[in-house]
Amino acid sequence: MQPIITTSGLTKTYGSGLTALHPINLEIRRGEIFALLGPNGAGKTTLISILCGIVVPGGGQARVDGHDIVRDYRAARRVIGLVPQELHTDVFETVWDTACFSRGLFDLPPDPAWIERVLRDLSLWNKRHDKIMTLSGGMKRRVLIAKALSHEPRVLFLDEPTAGVDVELRRDMWTLIRRLRDEGVTIILTTHYIAEAEEMADRVGVIHRGRLVLVEDKMTLMRKLGRRQLRLHLQDPLREIPPPLADWPLELGQDGSLLCLTFEAGEEQSRIPALLRRLGELGIEFRDLDTRESSLEEIFVGLVKES
User: Fold this and answer.
1) Run of H or E residues at 9
2) E strand map for 218-278
3) 161: which of 46, 167, 201, 307 lies 20 to 30 Å off by Cα?
């Protein structure tokens, strides 16, 4: 299947001389949830803004659903929905009117049934006659999502969509996002809530200082770069790690009562049994053990430090 978004050598340097994007080569698959991660100023919003036709690229090419974003920008923009980071909307309009107006901007005929469905999905139906100026911040965020979905886009960009919103909206939003993905909509999101990317994304891209550091399937990334830790709760505390255990990368914690082995994913079969046998030979007993895996956040921090 052809990717729905492709970029080739996409760059951006602003008039101030700041290079926001070095050559970006990226493919995003149809119907996936793609999380773009990076610290503030990494280039996430610049990349999204270029793909959505808000910022003019400095060089390179990009296509959305087969349409060149510069030469055929109207067709490209037609298939895109964007939920921006900032709250921008006409505060004097009603929720219903602003959603309908946004649909009309794309030269689509009115479809009250679709607008009703979107508003109900976002728990906005009871607010449809309210002016936006009267809504809470969380409700205004819902309106932005409704506007982005009003013209039935095939690609939905979410730029920090849950920043500063309540838990209920966050839960409703991810339920809606999953359903849209199941219906074939491609979702691209940027987020500082890496736990959400870990839960939601199919693939992850990491951008840092305008360079795309890595693009990988989420689970493959966590298997390849994730670290695991075996934690042994000792029966009797140790003052120090015995010299016969020097071949293992071990650390002591909790006043010598916790022995930790950190290893790369995939090393369990070689590392753990050998360590447990050696502990038995040395007469070191433990009353419990558990393991933990690196989170996506820990992997992300490590990648950014290396780049």
Assistant:
1) strand 5-13
2) 227-234, 250-253, 258-264
3) 307
C-alpha distances in Å from residue 124, one per residue of 60, 133, 161 = 40, 14, 17
CATH fold for domain 226-295: Alpha-Beta Plaits (3.30.70)
Q: Could you give the 3-state DSSP secondary structure of residue 279?
A: helix
Backbone angles phi, psi at 113, to 5 degrees: -65, -40
**Least confident window among 85-89, 126-130, 201-205:** 85-89
Residue ranges, comma separated, of all CATH 3.30.70.1560 domains in the chain are: 226-295
Q: What is the 3-state secondary structure (H, E, C) of 13-75?
A: ECCCCCEEEEEEEEEECCCCEEEEECCCCCCHHHHHHHHCCCCCCCEEEEEECCEECCCCHHH
| Pairing outcome for strands 19-28 and 33-37 | unpaired
Q: Tell whether the model's pLDDT for residue 306 goes beyond 90.
A: no
Query: Per-residue pLDDT averaged across 79-86, rounded?
Result: 87
CATH class name, domain 5-222 = alpha beta
- The tokens for 202 are 């199919």
For residues 83 and 86, give the distance between their C-alpha atoms in angstroms, rounded to a whole number. Answer: 9
Residues, the chain, total? Answer: 307
Does an H or E element contain 281, and which? Answer: helix 268-282
* Residue where the block lists tokens 């419990």: 288
Instruction: Extract the tokens encoding 159.
Output: 């730029």
Beta-carbon contacts of 175 under 8 Å, excluding residues fewer than 6 positions away, are none
- For residue 31, is pLDDT > 60? yes
- Residue span(s) of the chain under CATH 3.40.50.300 come to 5-222
pTM for the model: 0.74
The closest of 81, 224, 225 to 159, measured between CA atoms, is: 81
CB count in 10 Å sphere of residue 6: 16
- Hunting for tokens 């940027």 — which residue is that? 190
